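Field log, afternoon session.

UNIT: design team B
ACTIVITY: writing a sequence onto a fixed backbone
BACKBONE:
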C-alpha cells in the first residue's frame, strides 16, 4: 500500500472519526480544549525530554562514547513533538508514547532488534607483518 495514501488520506479520516466520536461523548468545546491541552502539554514535555537527551549526549561525548541512543532519542522526540502539534487523538497518543523514555526504549528495542548485530569475528584483530625499507636512489 502506498505510504502517501496512508499518511494523507487514512490518518486524517481516522482523526476526524475519533474527534466526532469523542466530541459526541464530551461535547465539542471540551474536545477542542482537550486537543489544545494535549498539544501544549506535549510540547512542554518534549522540551524537557529534549534538554535531558542533549545533556546525556554531551556527557557521553565527554566520556568518549558514541551518543547513538541520544541521537535516535532526540530524533524521536522531535517527531513526537510534530505528532503532538498535529490536531488529533491518535497522533497525540503516538506522540506521548514517543515522549515517555520507558516506552521509547521498548520501541527502539523492537525496531532495532535485528538491525544491530555484532559479528564476533569482527572483534578479532588480524595483523599483517611488514618491513619498511628505505632505498634512497635519488641522492645527490
Amino acid at each position: 500500500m502506498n505510504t502517501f495514501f496512508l499518511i494523507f488520506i487514512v490518518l486524517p479520516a481516522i482523526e476526524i472519526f475519533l474527534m466526532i466520536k469523542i466530541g459526541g461523548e464530551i461535547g465539542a468545546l471540551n474536545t477542542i480544549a482537550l486537543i489544545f491541552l494535549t498539544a501544549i502539554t506535549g510540547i512542554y514535555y518534549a522540551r524537557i525530554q529534549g534538554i535531558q537527551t542533549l545533556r546525556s549526549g554531551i556527557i557521553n561525548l565527554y566520556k568518549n562514547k558514541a551518543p547513538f541512543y541520544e541521537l535516535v532519542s532526540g530524533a524521536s522526540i522531535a517527531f513526537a513533538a510534530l505528532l503532538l502539534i498535529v490536531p488529533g487523538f491518535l497522533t497525540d497518543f503516538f506522540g506521548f508514547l514517543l515522549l515517555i523514555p520507558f516506552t521509547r526504549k521498548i520501541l527502539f528495542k523492537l525496531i532495532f532488534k535485528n538491525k544491530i548485530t555484532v559479528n564476533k569475528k569482527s572483534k578479532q584483530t588480524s595483523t599483517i607483518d611488514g618491513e619498511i625499507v628505505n632505498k634512497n636512489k635519488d641522492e645527490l
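LOG NOTE: Residues 5 and 28 are 28 Å apart (CA to CA).
NEXT ACTIVITY: expression trials, pending approval
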